[in-house]
Amino acid sequence: MLQSCSKSLFSSLSTFPQRSTPALTSLGAQRCRRWYSIHADHATERLLEIDPTRLSITKTTTPKELLAPKDLIFGHTFTDHMLSLEWTASDGWLAPRITPYQNLSLDPATCVFHYAFTAFEGMKAYKDSKGQCRIFRPDRNMRRLNKSAARIALPAFDGNAFIDLIGKLVKLDNHFIPSERGYSLYLRPTIIGTQRTLGVGPPGSALLYVIASPVGPYYPTGFKAVSLEATDYAVRAWPGGVGDMKLGANYAPCIVPQMQAASRGFHQNLWLFGEEEYITEVGTMNLFVAVKDPQTGEKELITAPLDGTILEGVTRDSVLELARERLVPKGWKVSERKYTMAELAKAAEEDRVLEVFGSGTAAVISPVRKISWKGNLVQCGLPDDVEVGPIAQQMKDWIEEIQYGDIDHPWSVVVS
Ligand SMILES: *Cc1c(COP(=O)(O)O)cnc(C)c1O
């Protein structure tokens, strides 16, 4: 049973069209093996289709009391409603439903509990000065969730139709979003395999749902620069692995290293990779480093390349695009390239580190003060009495003015 299931999974995987795939026939003959990430894309038209016109809405009869904005804690409270869609291998996506926020009821043998058939997204909706709701770059999150889902043999879906439905949920629960600047509605799309089976194989049924949590500013009293522990004893992601996807299975194993870093007084892990100690990401954020070239003095903004070990952050992409558009004309170089912890430490020693910051949906931008590495503290360019560098501040301002609709920009999608 087990064998036949995994065999069929394997054979269906091998038929996926793949991007950046080395010629499989020559793999065995190559002296140097090239790892690659599988980007599965196996949905047939029929199974992918979501029909937003079939949406049913059941409103709650017991609306929750709204918390005072200042009492909101990230991810602790949820709105009145949720959006759900069920999928079966025989019928594809069934009619979407918005219902009161409620518990799921699943058989203890459901495959998600045993084999981690779960992937998620993190995105935000904002209220602009006219009271309209806006979602930031939702197409990116849909593309990423499809990529994650397909990699664990869960069904793909039509991202635009799903954005439409998310808009309906946001609109229905929009009174949960405080109007004050800095507040937003964190949206958590999740997809799980729901087949009741201990067999290891592609789930024959799935559930796609969205819950929403009103959140306050990540730094309510202004930026607080964090300190990191360069982590070399545990590895978050590796070539040919799945670290470039938001699979639930990637996150639980990071908590113990995070607790260990915290016990030594550091906020987050700085995940290193390989003998070379390449800098990859920080906690669940991408990392940017701004340094000066030792010879020319040219300023360079660096982040790790998307080589399969890096989560393709929407905020990362936004920082890169804005930097190319607005910093390059001012003489900056913008690089997606590999760089090592030794390289950063050397730059710090030579006083060439301008600033370091993380990027992610929750905080948008998170400045870094120092990094513990091999028993030393690498200082990241911030004077003692300063919590944020100029580029980090500029990026946060540029991104937020788009998110809150202060300026018109294609990245901000108004919920109609
Ligand atoms: C979600 C996530 C990020 C940030 O992605 P955004 O789309 O910018 O929120 C970075 N790294 C990891 C490991 C993540 O899970």
TrEMBL record:
CDD domains on file: BCAT_beta_family
- Record keyword Metal-binding present: no
State the GO CC annotations: mitochondrion
One GO molecular function term of this record is: branched-chain-amino-acid transaminase activity
- Record's keyword terms, sorted: Amino-acid biosynthesis, Aminotransferase, Branched-chain amino acid biosynthesis, Pyridoxal phosphate, Transferase
Report which reactions are catalysed by this protein.
Answer: L-leucine + 2-oxoglutarate = 4-methyl-2-oxopentanoate + L-glutamate; L-valine + 2-oxoglutarate = 3-methyl-2-oxobutanoate + L-glutamate; L-isoleucine + 2-oxoglutarate = (S)-3-methyl-2-oxopentanoate + L-glutamate
Q: Which cofactor does it need?
A: pyridoxal 5'-phosphate
Keyword Amino-acid biosynthesis tagged = yes
One Pfam family recorded for the sequence: Aminotran_4
Name this protein carries in UniProt: Branched-chain-amino-acid aminotransferase
